[in-house]
UniProtKB/TrEMBL annotation:
Residues 108-126 have a biased composition (Low complexity). InterPro entries: HET, HetReg/Transcr_Mod. Residues 215-359 form the Heterokaryon incompatibility domain. This is Heterokaryon incompatibility domain-containing protein. It comes from Fusarium pseudograminearum (strain CS3096) (Wheat and barley crown-rot fungus). Residues 1-40, 55-86, 108-130 are annotated as: Disordered.
Amino acid sequence: MYEREPTTKKSQARLSSLFRRKTVIEDRHEPTPLSSPVQAPVSHYPAYIAEYQLKSQPQSPVSPLRHSQSSSTGRGNYRPYPKPALAPFPIPGSLVSKIEEREAMAATNTQNPTMPQSPQSPMSNPEETNRVSLLSGRDMTGLPPTSSDTYNITPISSAISRPSVVSTLDYSDQQPYEYTPLETGFIRLVRIAPGHKTMIECEIIQALITNVPQYVAVSYTWGDVGDTRKIDIEGSRVPITVSLYGALEALRQRQSSVLVWADALCIDQKNTDERSQYVQLVSQIYANAAFVAIWLGLEDNDSSKAVELLSRLAPPNSQFIPDQDVSRILGEGAENGDLLATVSLFGRDYWKRLWVSQEIFHAKRVAVHCGETFLPWQSYKSASTCFRRHHTELTFRTKGPDMRRPDKFTSVQTLIHGGPASLPTLSPHVLNGQNALLQVLRASRSQVSTDPRDKLYGILGVLPAHIRQGFRVDYTLSVKDVYTEIVEFLIQSTEKLDVICESVHFPVNTGSAKLPSFVPDWSHVPLTLAMGHQYGFQASGHTKAICRFHDERLNKLEISGIEIDVVQTKGMVVGTLCNLGDFLMAFLHWRALLLAAVEGRTPLQIKLAEEAFVATISLGQIITGYDRSRWQQVSYHVIANLFRERLLHIPLDDILRSHLDIASSIPPEARRQFLQTNFGDRMMGRTFCLTQNRRLGVGSGAMLPGDVVVVPLGCSTPVLLRPEGTQGEYRFIGDIYIENYMFGKAVDQWQVGERELKKYVLH
């Protein structure tokens, strides 16, 4: 589905009484400035008003950020955004104040003949006060203003059908809201009536998707579906999540209605067919929106301080901030808690949501709202880039007691990799490549979706047309059917088998038990990643996959591959949640297996075996400038010293002791990071093994003695296959690094007749 479980129903409401309400138009005036006003610089900004032609009006000095006005500029001249006056019934091309226009229309009670008739909202709110709009301000893109501050809007009558409900049942809190089926080519939009601190009143209309009026598309996370607030939809009291309620309240205007698209209200979540159809329109819906409003949630954990810090690092006017000023701002942020507030902001659930990438990818303009503050999307992205550029400074900055917490490193990682940086990178290079689908699946794997089928459906909108056309969005299909279709499509379109290596079986994932062993469970987020993609291996050279499915259900896949060896002995498995001691103990155990295998060999043979061992457990990733011999010496030097520092009770053998005091370019304070980066990250979720022919390997922690090592044609790495049953079938276990067999050696041997090609049926 496009989103999560439904939260609303539709009642047949008593619209006749609502439509008979008398619209009250009060005299309105510009907001009275509070104390210590700050005059914001003039800029043109198309506000989030959905259906109407807009003209920028004189700006109000009141800040929509709603800080205390005595300090409204904030640190670093954090200025409020201007607020244009808005009213909902303009005459196309007119430069007359929209407020004055509406007052005149109310006084004469006539409709301007030049204005197309539209289904006017029956709702009104007579208690308008001087609210500061959260929806007005600078151009959200950070680009120069457009050549005109007048925006031509599609006439409403040509784009909007009748309201979705025209029944006249009595009003009741218990009446559910029932959706009218969508006409072909139409989408629903929510019209939010003007108001402030009253129940949100809406009506749902249908609009032709090829000729929609201007609207705001909301990008948000549903949050707790059990925590709801009620809104009024055409007389029905409809519960929506607190998260969506906050977003609608932030977008609601005091003086005019606004059109909004929000999935929870605009899609009948109980209608499976409609959800399937809507998913295919999501990219178009967000692309057609005048703006996309990101809603991060309500003010919490000093989020306004975080937004202010972001605005100083990346001002909305795109002003360049020199590195020395960035360093000063970060230093102040560490002292006053702004950095910790940003950690909380960048760690919010919104950034983990799968659909975000598609919604932002297609947007014309994006604003990010958090509570009563907002900034352009570009400010968030630029500030995130600042954090990455100054990562060393953030890591070692210790000013302020809050940044000396034990989890400081985690906080810094959140600043560097959280927020906008946590979203998949969808560059043209990725999207236009042959392997675009697999690349995007990998990049978005850590993103969260309630429906596991959305791991595919939620990314289709960013992919090229030829990939989108390869799939039919259908929520009646099982998760197994959807995920197996991904494997089939990728094998057929790329003639490669790399997709099966994304099926990670250690630690055990119970959700994968219902899938064939070669089908990745995209709803599972493994901490161990496929080797081929990470390190650029080409174990099968440039060969193409030779394979076929054995049945229509795609439960069995026959592949062709070259058998290399069979696992004989395995070491202790390194888990995915490990500390320094775990890596060191695994190293000792793995090395003990090696020394037992080379016992009685010459010193030179043992030395070469130790070099091969270190190269193997680092997956062949030797730092530039080191040969195998020097790499082994430096690695043993670091490991031996870490044993002496952390595990004094563990005795070292003569070889390790001899490396304690050798010259090394790795300073003591960098030893732990050296081990983590070059060994720990590559050992997690894996184990060391020796094969029957004394080859060294590191592969899936799920491996067992007897597993067969095979290089499939069209696969970047060797894989582990486990014989099962009496039909000659195999279970896919995972990928494996085998010394000397990562760059085509098996294929070379097969082509000269030294090895044979076999068929393996995976289930």
